[in-house]
Amino acid sequence: MTNELLEKRREQMFPKLTAAQVARLEAHGERLQVSADTVLLESGQRVTRFFVVLSGSLDLLLRTSTGEALLNVLTPGDFTGEMSMLRGSIGLAHIRAHEAGSVLAIEAAQLRSIVQTDAELSELFMRAFILRRVALLSENSSGVMLLGSRHSADTLRLREFLTRNAYPYINIDVEADADAQALLERFHVRMEEIPVVVCRSEHVFRNPSNHEIAECLGMNPPLDNSAVHDLLIIGAGPAGLAAAVYAASEGLDVRILETTAPGGQAGTSSRIENYLGFPTGISGQALTGRALSQAQKFGANMSVATQAVKLYCDQRPYAVETDDGSLIRASILLIASGARYRGLGIDNVSRFLGVGIYYAATYLEAKLCQGEEVVIVGGGNSAGQAAVFLASSCRHVHLVVRSTSLAQSMSRYLIRRIEESPQITLHTNTQITALDGGDRLERLRWRRATDADADADEESREIKHVFLMTGAEPNTQWLQGCLALDEHGFVKTGRDLSMEDLAAAKWPLPRTPYLLETSQAGVFAAGDVRCGSVKRIASAVGEGSICVQFVHRALSELSVPMQQLAPTQS
To answer: Residue 560: what pLDDT?
Structure first.
């Protein structure tokens, strides 16, 4: 591994276990004798065992489209594994004995028990696993190759899916890479079939769905869909991840369903500077990536590229149907499916999605509009963070808001940066009225109006990139008919539920709903999807955390006859 920064952290990435630490581990595994060239893990296999080198040595190899790349040689005191160990996903490395010796083999379930109970080893293993995944992401070699175009919306979708799920891949731009034509011919792909993903150097997918890629790469752990989980969380944004960490750490069987990638909207933030404990700021992906690692450390299981499409609320345990037709059951549910940015109300917005219209401002989108003018629509913190981030690489940033100022919707520190940046212009009382272009966005029109000039003329601009970060629409379509929603579609909980709501839902308990409980007993909601929630990351994390105490209460009620439940106040 050649990355200079990671070389400085090699001792943390590949720490040596002491004799005392190895002795503690021996109680959890078995000694195996291995001869030279013995394969302990084949590339593409699910990781089920963790190895500590006792004698001899092991090669860590990465299978690529051109052969094998040596990542590291493990000698006595070294151990295998990265985040795939705790996620239950397919491993990225190929492990082969370099010379004869012996290893201590520990099953993945035992390793998870160790990281939950042994504080010293937990810190050592977790740091090493996370840094090794970071190193793999920084390497310009992988068994996954994406052949696409910067002018393709589906290429951007696949890049975001792989990047946000921290999966290493090689990106080949067929319009800029000198080797692209040879690769297209090698894999028998026509230009009109891109984007193409070559999975593990052998399976070729033409414009695959996110679910197809997740399946091929083995991103999700194998789980029994007939099992009844203690807690099923829909959505892996800040609220869902916080609930998963606390619930799993307290011994509950937790499963998370996530449509795209952990983090939700927060995961696309370039830099969050007002979150407690990070005075220098942290990216949304880094913050939520750490949260996911915590949840998986305690045993929570997450399925990505898995969308909930229907809730069956007329039965207990509850059942959630996913987009592949599976039914997943749980005693308690947490709806943390978040909200999405609103569109512009212009008919052809969807035509330019991914080719001029974007709902996130990560470094992937920033590269697409480098050196060009961009427009950001929205006056909240996400819009402010995006404006400051894009101003560092774009020619100019236009921040468009319908209101008269940013004061009511954006943090003061962001407003000051926008005011002081010569690269950012704020357009108040302004809205985009039209979009135009061929295969991608080429120009737009906007109108600025005041009370005195309500019919101001439209102005046309040759701007090819628009970031939409305005308002919020809850992801609750799949809940219609099951839970009480407010007039905007947000889930009503606790004291926001009226007697009419509870009567319509046939509320079965003598007590009133808990603070974050919906109109269905044992179904909770937290974060942006909830009616009345504060649209801030810290608030979502708080709601997800405190929800777990109510989950425990609701679980305890399942074993108590209903007539014995005394009325309580939420």
So the answer is: 58
